[in-house]
User: What shape does this take?
Amino acid sequence: MINTPYLLFLGDVPDMLAAKVAIGIRDWRPENAVGQFRLPGCGADLGLADMTLAEARAAGAQTLVIGVANRGGVISKEWKKVLVAALEEGFDLASGLHNLLRDEPDLRAVAEATGRALHDVRVPSLSYPIADGKKRRGKRCLPVGTDCSVGKMYTAMAMERDMIARGLKATFRPTGQTGILITGDGVPLDAVVADFMAGSVEWLTPDNDDDHWDLIEGQGSLFHVSFSGVTMALIHGGQPDALILCHEPTRTHMRGLPDYALPSLEALRDMALPIARVANPACEVVGISVNTQHMSEEAALAYLAKVETEMGLPATDPYRFGAGKLVDALAGL
Amino acid sequence: MINTPYLLFLGDVPDMLAAKVAIGIRDWRPENAVGQFRLPGCGADLGLADMTLAEARAAGAQTLVIGVANRGGVISKEWKKVLVAALEEGFDLASGLHNLLRDEPDLRAVAEATGRALHDVRVPSLSYPIADGKKRRGKRCLPVGTDCSVGKMYTAMAMERDMIARGLKATFRPTGQTGILITGDGVPLDAVVADFMAGSVEWLTPDNDDDHWDLIEGQGSLFHVSFSGVTMALIHGGQPDALILCHEPTRTHMRGLPDYALPSLEALRDMALPIARVANPACEVVGISVNTQHMSEEAALAYLAKVETEMGLPATDPYRFGAGKLVDALAGL
Assistant: This one.
């Protein structure tokens, strides 16, 4: 559990593309973002107040979050100076970088001396149990994709936002580094040891009120041979009541696998639903989320209408047109 | 890679049940078993020559394999004395115990001083790649089960033995601790980090002669919610040409999951085959392996005949009645 709110560290990254994590926090948990900290030459700007460490602490910030990807896998001297000063100032540090904060002897020593925490969200911080498959109270919704990186996280977060706006009980449950940094909690599923994957998802989505929905962040794809085992564990550990099919229509092959074509939405439905019903016989496919970012608005709307007819299910791009249809589809469950 | 042949250490275990690994080595790789080493009070006997460490070394033994499970998770003083002496005598040590050899400071120090290896086969010894899904040369056969522990490893090993006896090219590929100790090599798949599971299986079953068969050890079950992600990674990493359905007909619920019934063989076929065809569109279900150990011979034969009729596929208990039918079924592929 990472203490919120955050000061978002952008370092000296050249552009907004490198600031994906910080943008996610600003967009999805603005209440967690007190301000931004930029070094000279930084080409990213979140539109938040630029703050010194002391100003951010005074404004209540608890954790300095490294909201960017660094190239080269080295934490530079310029970054290090700020990170050490932040620890001294009373901040915890949180990072999704491949090179871990805990592997930096100076950061580790200063964190120990000051009693602050170093959160490396790429590695599990807990020993998870082996899944027991017991039916849990409350409801769970899981987006599953025809491919990796088709918008499963955004779908779950957009649905959570819509549900909370309606006064419904809903919690986004992150299963990846970006989601964990955005919310401050979750399971880095792709870094969990095989035997404990499903158990970590059970741990993440515990018993809850009968009318509460977990919106679980999806991972991988049943059709992506590199990561399908992670997707499988997520479905069986999450025991979803509702599946959302996620798709990106302009992709020409599976991400990173040039020899593999994307499956159809029908093929995804026909594979995912029997798998999900092993853990939850009541599971239903309730809607379709299409990532239309590479389509004109006209083309996107035409595509969504066609999918709705063909699949007999509500279809939307929740980021572009809102998640209302998908939330409506949960109502009967 | 563990150096063979072995001296099999049985310690002071009370009975044969505790000697599962040693029995597996004796039964499946007798050429790897130079002799056995027993402490006073040992209730197990493999029927091999009892040897001192020096005698076993003289007979060519390279590695002392702890062929038993220890209860309590502690390596006792009596065991330790033998293990230290074995290192001094020139043996490597290999173990599938939960408590690792490498975590014992004395064993570690003596191994370093003597230049011997400590093989803890429960933990991966390599950094595996992420799977790339590329089609590999050679053929692969994978047993998949209606449940865990229904005889998938024995099926693969019995098929390998039958194929080698016929002069065919075949290699058993272990994916669990017991199989690794039996053969000296393999991947401890349930201990691999999620993102690298499928890649570790690709590594284990590389390009080979066009007429060579890998017989891959199965793990878990697509219907066992605790471990199904491991099974999925094994199917997509192994890209099998042939699946064998494995079943234990007397089991009343999924192993360790009292609320879960076993699926039918039809349900297993209908789920496993589309999944396997994602990685290998030519994959076929070719036969059925039934673990009949809890049935009379008459009941077993009747059950196998019934399954053959219902499924339209050859069915046998490869341990009881031979694996010939299953090997025959590979011929057309």
